[in-house]
Design a protein that fits this description.
It is found in: Cytoplasm, Cytosol. By secondary structure, this protein is an alpha+beta fold. The chain is built from 24 helices and 30 strands.
Length: 751
């Protein structure tokens, strides 16, 4: 379809009044006509027979209007509707097209028989999605009655468009939303087993130290899968997305284990990610799968499970309990989702919005602008009703962060949580996840990536105009991870137990972090600047020596990315560029090239010899350097001078007072530090020197530069021609601070 230039409307014309009219039987076509439709639409000479037959059969259904459709034909309107929905275009255009398709008498309204055909198509789609169709027909009939807003007994185009843009996911129900399908594909990972395990299919031993396949995120990387792990003779097309890292949110994990040779014969993964019937909504049941009892001990009777002798035991996909086969009758029906229940959205909490009552649908109207933005996605088709007194976790993962760590974290969270709450940022960005969770109360966000990824998510939250702004935690996968350090989530994820990290997240507290707007006003000059990377500061802004080092690092990484594939290599490159900068001093006498205003008052730099100025929102830069330095707090009030000064101290420049100032993420003030050179930055990083030169603490700052200088925002550098830079307070964002570390030697403002 992507390679074809044809549109469904082009093909329809040929069947209605063109050279293909001979194949039309009323509003139906036979198998030969269907083949012709595919050839013309896809612009191919031949369509494989098995594909044509499978598609033809998929349009045949038991839901027929009597005497209108025979079993050896399919409805041309249904075929056209389905393919048109997969084409690009605006939602309202698709709605209008589907209306005209089902308005068979072309009178501009849908009468009862035409509405019946639409319900049949929706029933077919529901059956494909494995929904309980027995309860769905009366719901759809009632829904279609609600679309008749004027009570005339028929549906006009205006009513159809109004319904599709507000309360009723018409295009979803007619077949657009393919991610609603639990695809049944196992997430196969190659794995060498350090203990005897048994194949879930043939039940024979895989062998100690031998490689098999596991529907489990703890296997090796997808790169390994794409090579030796694929069974001999199998082509890429036979394996599909179950082998790649770019996984659909509809995938699920069951810990099925098989030989390589048994993978193609394995039964589909039957773990559902959402409720498909009203009876499944609200209470989650255990989902038991044979095998996978890695602990070797029964959670019911506490006796050993003899996992080394045969395929024995059961484990629950959602609560991860492991039991004997004989202990199953003693287990209750209800699953509480185990130790991570506070974070998990069980399938019983996610259900098709069409299964909501009519009153619920009426009270959740979506604006036309929102529909345009949604592109009729999962956020419209599914509804979330979380378990009471829980805090569902929305997880965003940047798979490219931290080398292969990002991919592994993505797979592991898809296993620990519901895959529908884990989003791959490289696939569609953060917007689908934010829309899906939009109306969920008390949810939290976990961002797995570097500082740049965190900034991306915070900016997206800003733009989303959410009714509730969720607090954000960070799993650091980047190089610097300065914000994660300040929020007690560590300087970098090194493969620790994610379950423990999620338990730490339960004990976290909310702090409202300041965020700052940056306005760059260039002067009239013939020189050209690099584009400004960000217009919001979350961590820090700097001019001069450290930005020069970062800019050289950035240029080299863009040119030779293969040389920057680990944190250790990155630090060595930084050291090399810092050494070079200390020799050449490209930003010497910086104070002669700029002036600084603090809340409208000039800052005197005449007595200083600086090569850089840093403006700090958090007390960590360059992967752990505290340029402001440690502050010995006065006895008594833990907030010391910050609390005593209150709102009156918008500007502090007195050196004696600055000595006692403690950085605070939420005080609506910035710390300004002068840097004497690259050597001083290295001394601060290695703790040989406590801090740079404390210049000010303020709520607004303006720079005027007279020559091209290196600058950076949150680690992203650029070269800027002479300009004026204004930094002002923007807003505050709720962030989650990890539990206190055992060691007391940490940034004071968080203790």
């Amino acid at each position: 379809m992507q390679d074809s230039t044809k549109k469904v409307s082009d093909v329809l014309k040929l069947f209605e009044d063109g050279e293909m009219a001979e194949y039309l039987q009323g509003d139906a076509i036979g198998y030969e006509g269907f083949q012709q439709f595919l050839k013309i639409y896809l612009e191919v000479d031949n369509v494989p027979g098995h594909l044509s037959q499978a598609l033809f059969q998929s349009f045949q259904t038991g839901y027929y209007i009597e005497d209108t459709v025979r079993e050896d034909v399919v409805c041309l309107s249904d075929v056209s509707c389905y393919f048109s929905l997969l084409e690009g275009g605006r939602p309202e255009d698709k709605l209008e097209f589907t209306f005209k398709l089902y308005d068979t008498d072309r009178n501009g309204i849908l009468d009862s028989s035409e509405v019946d055909r639409i319900i049949i198509q929706m029933m077919r789609m529901a059956e494909y999605l494995d929904w309980d169709v027995s309860e769905l027909r009366p719901i759809l009939q009632q829904m279609m009655k609600e679309i008749d807003y004027d009570g005339s007994g028929s549906v006009s185009l205006a009513e159809w468009l109004r319904a599709g843009a507000t309360t009723v996911p018409l295009l979803v129900l007619l077949g657009l939303e393919m991610t609603l399908k639990d695809n049944g594909q196992h997430m196969w990972r190659p794995k060498r087993f350090p203990r005897p395990v048994y194949c879930n299919l043939c039940e024979s031993s895989i062998g100690l130290g031998k490689q098999g396949l596991s529907c489990n995120p703890s296997g090796e990387t997808a790169a390994a899968v794409s090579g030796a792990a694929r069974p001999p003779g199998e082509e890429d097309a036979g394996w599909g997305s179950s082998w790649g890292a770019d996984l659909s949110p509809s995938g699920a994990v069951c810990k099925y284990v098989v030989h390589d040779r048994c993978a193609m014969k394995a039964l589909p993964c039957e773990v559902s990610t959402y409720a498909k019937s009203r009876k499944d909504i609200g209470v989650q049941s255990h989902v038991w799968v044979r095998g996978g009892c890695e602990s070797g001990r029964c959670d019911r009777c506490q006796k050993k499970i003899r996992i080394y002798h045969s395929l024995v035991g059961l484990h629950c996909v959602w609560c991860h309990l492991e039991i004997h086969d004989d202990c199953l009758p003693a287990m209750g029906h209800e699953c509480d989702c185990g130790l991570l229940r506070d974070h998990i959205l069980p399938p019983s909490s996610i259900y098709p919005s069409v299964l909501a009552s009519g009153q619920e649908r009426k009270t959740s109207k979506i604006s036309q602008k929102t529909v345009d933005d949604l592109s009729l996605s999962t956020s419209e088709a599914l509804r979330i009703d979380p378990v009471s007194n829980t805090h569902p976790l929305l997880v965003f993962v940047n798979p490219k962060s931290g080398g292969k760590q990002g991919e592994r974290v993505l797979w592991k969270f898809q296993y620990l949580l519901n895959p529908r709450q884990v989003f791959n940022l490289l696939k569609d960005g953060p917007e689908p996840g934010l829309r899906f969770f939009r109306d969920v109360p008390d949810y939290r966000i976990l961002v797995c990536g570097g500082d740049g990824t965190v900034g991306w998510i915070l900016e997206s939250i800003d733009k989303a105009n959410l009714p509730f702004v969720p607090p954000v935690a960070v799993l650091p996968l980047g190089t610097g991870n300065d914000l994660a350090r300040c929020l007690r989530w560590g300087g970098g994820y090194e493969g620790q137990n994610l379950g423990k990290i999620l338990k730490d997240l339960e004990a976290s507290k909310v702090v409202h972090m300041d965020r700052w707007s940056v306005e760059v006003i260039p002067q009239q000059t013939e020189e050209k600047s690099d584009p400004v990377p960000f217009h919001i500061i979350n961590n820090y802004f700097s001019i001069g020596v450290d930005a020069s080092i970062a800019h050289r690092f950035h240029i080299m990484r863009e040119k030779y990315p293969e040389k920057f594939n680990s944190r250790m290599k990155n630090k060595l490159w930084y050291f090399e560029f810092a050494t070079s900068e200390s020799i050449f001093s490209t930003c010497k006498k910086l104070e002669e090239s700029l002036t600084v205003e603090i809340c409208g008052k000039p800052l005197d730099l005449s007595s200083l010899s600086l090569e850089g100025i840093a403006v700090l929102n958090i007390p960590s830069t360059h992967g752990g350097s505290n340029l402001w330095g440690d502050t010995k707090r006065p006895h008594g009030d833990v907030h010391g001078i910050n609390q005593a000064l209150g709102a009156t101290a918008r500007v502090i420049t007195d050196p004696d007072i600055l000595k006692t100032c403690v950085p605070d993420l939420s005080d609506k003030r910035l710390e300004v530090v002068g840097l004497e050179g690259a050597i001083e930055i290295g001394q601060i990083y290695t703790k040989l020197k406590n801090a740079g030169h404390r210049l000010a603490k303020c709520s607004e700052i303006t720079f005027h530069t007279t020559k091209t200088l290196p600058m950076q925002i949150d680690g992203e550098p650029w070269m800027q021609t002479p300009c004026t830079i204004k930094i002002t307070h923007r807003n505050q964002m709720p962030m989650l601070v990890g539990p206190p570390p055992r060691s007391s030697n940490f940034f004071g403002f968080l203790c």
